[in-house]
Amino acid sequence: MKNILLYLALLMLLSGTQALPISAQTKVDFLKFKGKISPNSENENNDTDPPFKALVFPANSPKKVSNQSNVSDMENGLQIIKDIIDKMIGREYGFTLLPQHKYMINNCLGFKVSAGEFNVKFKNPVFEVGSMGKITIKLGLDKIYLSALKIRMRPCSKPQHIPSPCHFGPKFEIGGEATDVSVTIVFHPVARALAGSSGVCFFALADNVLFKWRIGGLNLKPMQNNLDHLGKDMLEDGLNGGLFNVFYSQFIELSKEVIPEYFEICKGAYDIKEIVDNLPDEVIAGSINSESSGNQNDKWQVKKVNAKTNTGKLIITLPKDVAWDMTIFPAGSDKVLSNTMLKTNFSLLPGSYDLEINHIRITGVKIEKGNETRLKAGTLHITSATSWTLYDETKKTVLINSMSAQKRGLPVGKYKLSIDNQDRDIEIKEGETMEY
To answer: Among 13-22, 251-260, 266-275, where is mean pLDDT lowest?
Structure first.
């Protein structure tokens, strides 16, 4: 039965007029931040801050097809949405402030974010079905405790800089708490049935997701009170960026866990459908019969299992408590096929792919028909809360910047780790954990 379902899914995928894109890639120009980018030239002695990386999220703009429907109109549709959201808010999330963003009262009074992370956990979801298939969710939060956040102040307070103090001074840490916090999310989920069945197996987001935050109170020390409203803007930007990432990377993935509980026919339907929705037509046309010539690389290795399937497997093995994310692209392209923090294996059509794990790029990974490609990875364990930055081996590119204890899954290879004001050359080896 499963083979029949996969065959039906493949037929649906390869008929271009029926394919429903689950994810695409676009820069989020509709997400407007309240802070503005500030270059290092505005800092004291041109001191450098971690660079801000433009946020990029799936667009999820499905084609208009005859049997596409609003999830809110489906039987059990709202309950499925509730189950997905319950899974999402059952976890605590770490959000990051936006480095190099400044928040100003006037040209010479304000502050600039250097670095900072904080954790949030949502609660008490309230749902409302609106017009045109849109759904509104309101989520509350417990108190948000902010600590070890680094900012720069303008004007600079050091006397030696007078009479020209109008630049950002050295970093210093702030802390405090935000209270009475809630967020309202408005989004438009649509559904598509599996070809030849009544099983509604595939969700997508028809429009951009809108977020509106309410922060009742904020007290940051040692900042002066007349800057607290700028602190709210700073916190809201960090919450927006973080929640966009959480929502876009997890909603579709978690729908694939929930939907089969209501439509048994959907079990197994995602093995092929998941990745190839957005492959260019020429890739789909040529990939079913293609096989790669190489079978291993210093970053990955192909295992010959000769399974009777038209796809191959991409697998990464990491401990369950290790943080990681993966983005999959067609080789040589910036078009995202999948972006997830949840899965450890993928079914892909044969061919070459580029991958990013925790922002580290691996190019030309081969997927062979019926075989398994295993990525070689290990773990970096930062054992205590401290400021640390992971660079590439040449220290030209910032890969991870954090101030918390973490376990991060990384591709094997050499890196430069800056921690406790010291640079260390490190090497991540397959299946091993490196602790600092």
So the answer is: 13-22
Mode of pairing for the β-strands spanning 360-367 and 351-357: antiparallel
SS3 177: strand
Question: How many residues comprise the chain?
Answer: 436
Q: Are 23 and 278 in contact (CB under 8 A)?
A: yes
Task: Look at residue 221 and give its three-state secondary structure.
Answer: strand
> What are residue 265's phi and psi, to 5 degrees?
-65, -20
CA distances from 239 to 34, 159, 235, 288, 298 (A): 12, 36, 6, 42, 38
- CA 403-406-412 angle, to 5 degrees, is 115
Residue 316 CA to residue 411 CA, distance in Å, equals 10
Rounded-to-integer distance, Cα 79 and Cα 100, Å: 41
Of 35-39, 64-68, 395-399, the one with minimum mean pLDDT is: 64-68
- Entry pTM: 0.61
Copy the structure tokens of residue 114. Answer: 């250097």
Which three-class secondary structure string do you get for 313-329? EEEECCCCCCECCEEEE
Closest CA to 337 of 318, 365, 295: 365
- Cα–Cα distance between 436 and 389 in angstroms, integer? 12
Q: Where are the alpha helices (DSSP H) in 263-356?
A: 270-276, 281-287
As given in the structure block, the two tokens for residue 217 are 């109170």
The residue assigned the tokens 């802070």 is: 35
